[in-house]
DNA sequence: CTGAAAGCGCTTACAG
DNA sequence: CTGAAAGCGCTTACAG
């Protein structure tokens, strides 16, 4: 174990002051070209790298952004985490990833985060108590809810899709295909995504003088969705069960398709049309060809990065709420031939 | 923006020295019960939390472990990242996640990591130059290669599956099913996983007096695998193409199945049997029912955590190399009826 | 058990 | 442009 070289070591070797070394590594600081090159030479010889921890202590900027995630089995999130990391890296920020197991855990995690003086926090599909949200705001740490809507009037930003419009699109597509008995398999009852998708879906059905034929809850989990599908499609008589179903996300929709085909012997789309939400990569796989409402992950990430940088630079910036457009991707599961 | 309370603020309010506050938060330090409770009361009133950055500066322990990943579209990794994070969190460590885009980028990333004084580094399916590996060793930072084998004699630890045994199992399963024309779709040519899986596969074929009938390369990517499948199965005459194929991982195997069925009109397993590697969750999906060689992700994660903690606590510990058993999971893609 | 003090490795006014 | 010095918020011998 070799002790790393410090700015003092470099200063000594270069024959300059420690301040000069520090200035060499501070963009925009005034250092003579001659001094700078002496410092760089010495730094190279010693393998010097500025200690980011010491810098953070004094500047109060860690250049780290915490991302709190959970449910990585939902295929939408790994991709988001990857792209989000890359996006922040482009701006010189690093991602400190936290996995929250239960929803209640987010608060405890956040408290730990604050000890690390992260510059900002992105909550992927997680919520946090208003107490913690206020602590973050008080500490000047921007918080962005990703794929969740923040309560109005708060200090917390949010970036989400127009889930309500997505729900309407799903209903419109199924109605246009002539379906009359249409079911809905819900995600988490208390999530804003589920609430808004279902509201849009029901509103569009109502606009056609119809209402949902059956409704079960899958809690956004694979197993939950299998159960929900069994409950909804157990009727032996075809007229007793939906001929189409809107599932609150693709992760569940795939489980539903498996259950319909494998367990219940029903064909998709001939016996039951299925439409999901997210347009995860797996929706395009040949084994499913799942129609879906696409969330624009790229735009969501760009909006997140933009808001984060704005809020880090301007602490008094007001909370922003971004809602992005979605679009229908039709595939085989609703009868579109590829 | 309210300035966070420091140990000095707490000390003043509690009427004790700053040292006493620090000791209260240092497990094992000697503080009178009376003093401790005065400190805790004051801390509660001020919402005090020790500053982890300042602590890191002086203790040289950040309790952060860097995880460098890439290829999150391979479904094996998100699950590993999630479980690994949770596992380290149990021991009071946090994961700093870095996404390496190209393989060459890992070195640059590592240099940045060292500035944050992470306590350890896990490289998920990435390699690093021997120069950087030495820098880490010199700095006393343990490095673990996950799902890769380290070069012998180095200072870098590794945790991987017995890929060679896995390759043999795949060959054995296909031979046992009576296949004669057996193909192999390779991953990255220069990866240890591909090398070992292929070596075991070929060795087992050779043991039966056979050799691989066709070989193409999919580079561990979805698109690469589609291309590799087209190349291998373009022959119109069934006798000209393999009746079974071992694909170097599940991520590619799923792409191969899509190409076989969707594009080439071949049935799995009737026309072509397919076997993959990893046993990702998606392999069990009804749309694929993919036979696979299962990597024991749980055991890999436990081994990684154990080695990491050992090496953090004992800097002079020697590099360890763990190889974990794999097992065959037979499903529909090799003719097993579920 | 407790407090005063040094020091971790930086950044940043300040004076020159 | 440059250097001496203060200070970020802690931990940890050291002396009492």
List keywords for this structure.
six-stranded mixed sheet, Rossmann fold, six-stranded parallel sheet, alpha/beta, DNA-binding, 43% helix, homodimer
- Give the structural class of chain A: alpha/beta
Helix content of chain A: 40-55%
Reading off the top of the CATH hierarchy, the class of the largest domain in chain A is best stated as Alpha Beta
Contiguous low-pLDDT stretches of chain A (5 residues minimum) are none
Write structural notes for this entry:
2 copies of one chain form a homodimer. Chain A is an alpha/beta fold. Chain A contains 12 helices and 12 strands. Chain A starts with 6 loop residues before the first helix and ends in a 9-residue tail after the last strand. Chain A has helices at about 5-15, 20-25, 35-45, 50-60, 75-90, 105-115, 130-140, 165-175, 190-205, 220-235, 250-265, 295-315, and strands at about 65-70, 95-100, 120-125, 145, 155-160, 180-185, 215, 245, 275-280, 290-295, 320-325, 325-330. In chain A, helix 1 packs across helix 3 and helix 10 (about 220-235) crosses helix 11 (about 250-265). The longest helix of chain A is centred in the C-terminal third of the chain and has 17 residues, at about 295-315. The mean pLDDT of chain A is about 90. In chain A, the strands form 2 sheets. In chain A, strands 2-1-3-4-5-11 form a 6-stranded parallel beta sheet, sandwiched between helices. Chain A has a 6-stranded mixed beta sheet with strand order 7-6-8-9-10-12, with helices on both faces. Chain A folds into 3 domains: about 5-50, 434 Repressor (Amino-terminal Domain) (Orthogonal Bundle); about 60-160 and about 295-325, Response regulator (Rossmann fold, 3-Layer(aba) Sandwich); about 165-295 and about 330-335, Response regulator (Rossmann fold), CATH 3.40.50. Chain A is elongated and about 90 Å long. At the A-B interface, helix 4, helix 5, strand 2, helix 6 and helix 11 of A face helix 4, helix 5, strand 2, helix 6 and helix 11 of B. Strand 2 (about 95-100) of chain A pairs antiparallel with strand 2 (about 95-100) of chain B. Chain B binds a DNA duplex (16 and 16 nucleotides) through helix 2 and helix 4.
